[in-house]
Amino acid sequence: xxxxxxxxxxxxxxxxxxxxxxxVDNNGQKMTTNQGLKVSDDENSLKAGKRGPSLLxxxxxxEKIMHFDHERxxxxxxxxxxxxxxxxxxVYESMVEFTKAKFLQDPTVKTPVFVRFSTVAGSRGSGDTVxxxxxxxxxxxxxxxxxxxxxxxxxxxxxxxxxxxxxLVHSFKPEPNNEIPxxxxxxxxxxxxxxxxxxxxxxVMWAMSDRAIPRSYRMMEGFGVHTFRFVNKEGKSRFVKFHxxxxxxxxxxxxxxxxxxxxxxxxxxxxxLYEAIEMGQAxxxxxxxxxxxxxxxxRFDFDILDPTKLWPEEVIPVKIIGKMTLNRNPDNxxxxxxxxxxxxxxxxxxxxxxxxxxxxxxxxxxxxxxxIRLGGPNFHEIPINRPVCPFHNNQNDGYHRMTINKSPIxxxxxxxxxxAPEGATAEEGGYVHYQxxxxxxxxxxxxxxxxxxxxxAKMFWNSMTDVEKEHIIAAFQFEVGxxxxxxxxxxxxxxxxxxxxxxxxxxxxxxxxxxxxxxxVSTVTMSSPALSQESKIKSAKSSKVAILVExxxxxxxxxxxxxxxxxxxxxxxxxxxxxxxxxxxxxxxxDVSYTLxxxxxxxxxxxxxxxxxxxxKKLIAQKEVEDFIHExxxxxxxxxxxGEAVGLLETIGLPINxxxxxxxxxxxxxxxxxxxxxxAIQEHRHWTRQM
Length: 691
Prior knowledge:
Layout: H1 3-7, H2 12-20, H3 59-69, E1 82-91, E2 111-119, E3 134-142, E4 145-152, H4 165-172, H5 188-196, H6 201-207, E5 222-223, E6 228-231, E7 237-246, H7 255-264, H8 268-278, E8 283-293, E9 319-328, H9 333-338, E10 351-353, H10 357-373, H11 455-463, H12 466-481, H13 486-497, H14 501-511, E11 544-548, H15 555-567, E12 571-576, E13 581-583, E14 589-591, E15 594-595, E16 606-609, H16 613-620, H17 623-634, E17 638-642, H18 644-651, E18 661-664, H19 670-683
Parallel strand pairs: 11-12, 11-16, 12-15, 16-17, 17-18
Antiparallel strand pairs: 1-2, 1-9, 2-3, 3-4, 5-7, 6-7, 6-10, 7-8, 8-9, 13-14
């Protein structure tokens, strides 16, 4: 790389231009074979007579069928179902004091990124809203090479050492004797693993919480999970953890709602993300870091390298350092989202690894996985994986080689090409590992500091609101209640007894198990408000509101409500008994988005029932409308009604004096109604209706 290339920062558009160079627009193009030969007939194979056998010499038939036969690549073992989005990242201020990573230095530079969100347990065809961990993987296309931050929406993990990863995954995958159940942990083998591997206690508390059923990919936090290092130009190292904070706040579904959405729209999360970006609603996350000085490594009551532990934000604050904006959908799902290859070992100078034993194993596993999934060692040359900076590696061969190297040299050292490693020293921009002193005997063992399994699980429980605790209890009762083995059920109760007696007792009663006679329950009293979703800042922006309306609507009232929603960045969608255009007596028209048959209250964040006697009369005559409204109420959502629509709520027996039910019988109070309605939507759920 020349000095001129080195000094030129990567711009946001650089990756798009690179991808565009591989993009083909087939619109209006005549069909050809893969070799460019024009195709005269794509309907009939070559035969010996119209009713005769097909001929082996039909090269076009063979080419087409061959491609079809090989179109599927092995899906990811975990994180198989996902959706990816393009965007860019900008740092707020230079991080030169902490790291020499160039993409974290200049606030004017927009570093292109590609992010893939995913579920973990299910196959590519499973539903989006299952109870599961969500993957949050980000590829930064920096001027120094690709950097991958491969994390989840939960800051800890089930296991401490990578050697246990195959066991964990085998436990939550469908059971091998019958391939049941799909995308679920509510079965014997998973809970048998949990009960017999107590290091998973903290993570399973998160998995049973609302964090495991997010409202949207746009409304969940992301975490790097592991402890990494920042290294600055002077060679000073600090331990670091990475956080993604959604600008829309953190929201979740309720369990009953999540199950119903899986049937109504199994693509709910990917559709939500796709439509938001197509509508021009940029998806924003702020990047934060927690940092610990090297000399402070052992001053905490937890091991900072243990991946089943988090760093409490009240003890080690999160420093917000930049913002990621996701604003462009892929042009082709397979070419980009399915073929993107992440690897936590893809780092740039200034970011290094720690001795976290789970991370250490991942550094091997990801490369090995991509080799079999993408068919060979050149997966880095697939357009979505190519770095935006030049790369030269003296490699020429292997499956799917796309770079044509003219040099005869494929080895080092050499004199014919004289291409020694460029930037071999840290001063010249080369990647040099942090020189950590390491010594010790070769052992298969874990540090004693990893042996506390329950303190942070208890801290998580202490941090939950009463509503969140009720949801966790119900999740345990559902999941463990699906377990067939009474022995495994009892073992889970025994395990949870070490975390909290109330939780264990309610679980035991629900599943017919016994409380253990002697329990060493955690005595931790610490809580961390940052762990509670209910403590997070909430936003009404991008919420979806179903507008229930029929012919004869009050156009003035409805216009004021729609204008208020649109001004707040909320998305109103018209739901009626039929598609097409609704009309009122003044000739005003309204385009219908969905029917009561093609939509459901679980697909919206709030409901508004439009006024006017004619429209309300038609609505009240439909049983589906009553079900639509009652289900939204059951899921603690905001419901608004004006004028005659208030009478509709009374007729169907909905209590209108409940929190989140916003009404006015007078159209003259519409401005005041709109203000209250918007505030209620911002709350997202009205949990006092549950308690």
